[in-house]
Amino acid sequence: GDSVTQMEGPVTLSEEAFLTINCTYTATGYPSLFWYVQYPGEGLQLLLKATKADDKGSNKGFEATYRKETTSFHLEKGSVQVSDSAVYFCALGAGNQFYFGTGTSLTVIP
Amino acid sequence: EAGVVQSPRYKIIEKKQPVAFWCNPISGHNTLYWYRQNLGQGPELLIRYENEEAVDDSQLPKDRFSAERLKGVDSTLKIQPAELGDSAVYLCASSGDVAQETQYFGPGTRLLVL
User: Fold this and answer.
1) Smallest Cα–Cα separation from A98: which of A54, A21, A46?
2) d(CA A109, CA A13)
3) Which residues of B touch A41 (CB under 8 A)?
4) How far is residue A106's CA from residue A99's CA, in Å, rounded to a whole number?
5) Alpha-carbon distance B48 to B103, whole Å?
6) Helix (H, G, I), strand (E, B) or coil at A73
7) What contacts B99, CB < 8 A, 6 or more positions away?
8) Helix (H, G, I), strand (E, B) or coil at B105
9) If 0-12 CB within 10 Å is exposed, 13-18 middle and 19+ buried, where does residue B14 land?
């Protein structure tokens, strides 16, 4: 069945460091891919999405490219800030179904 | 535009007691989801509604969990009786239509069963 696998955390980075959180997926069709972010004590917020191969989603300095050949949707940011500390979830949406990864906790230290 | 509203935000109960969670989706969103999120895990779907119809409840433990979405707007998720293992965050999400696929989440209800 369809599924998402993302790198395990926690991840700790210094401010202004480069961030990569890996996400790979398994799907039988042509899913949409998402990154959601969850700040402490809050619900999930949509960070970015891509609906077809080679699309790049971007928001708040974060980017992810839908790579069909490697079945990946890695999240990147060139320079992280303390305020980016949160849990990041990769997700796959295929019509009626939605699958989340287990989440990657990011802590950015000054 | 108001987001997805959930209440209560926190609930502490003793095992075997009943508990109910309420969700008001974004206005105009026909699809409503209830998820359970265990500590350190991603959300897991419990039930999905299209308007007032439950179209996917395969992951809902029907012996103790029930849900309703009368009139196709607000929804209530109930657990009766609660067990220790039900301690989790219960998230409600809504989307405009299935084709859009983007879901908008509420803040969740954090349940602790003692």
Assistant:
1) A46
2) 6
3) 107
4) 21
5) 12
6) coil
7) A95
8) strand
9) exposed
Digitized pLDDT (tens) for each residue of chain B, 114 residues in all: 679 999 999 999 999 999 999 999 999 998 999 999 998 888 999 999 989 999 888 889 989 999 999 888 999 999 999 999 999 999 999 988 656 568 889 999 999 999
Structure tokens at B98: 């299935």
Contact call for residues A37 and A48 (beta carbons, < 8 A):
no
For residue B48, the chain A residues in CB contact (below 8 A) are 96
Q: Which residues of B touch A36 (CB under 8 A)?
A: 105
Residue A100: name the closest of B88, B103, B114, B19 by CA: B103
From CA B75, how far away is CA A67, in angstroms rounded?
37
Is B59 in a helix, a strand, or coil?
coil
- Name the residue type at position B52: E
- What is the tens place of the pLDDT at every residue in A20-45? 999 999 998 889 999 999 998 788 99
Phi/psi-derived region of residue A71, left when phi > 0, alpha when psi is between -120 and 50, beta in every other case: left
Tokens for A33, please give them: 């891919």
| Separation CA B89–CA A93 (nearest Å) | 21
Q: In whole angstroms, what is the distance from residue B94 CA to residue B69 CA?
A: 13
Question: How many angstroms away from the CA of A21 is the closest CA of chain B?
Answer: 15
Determine the Cα–Cα distance for residues B100 and B38; give it in Å rounded to an integer.
Answer: 27
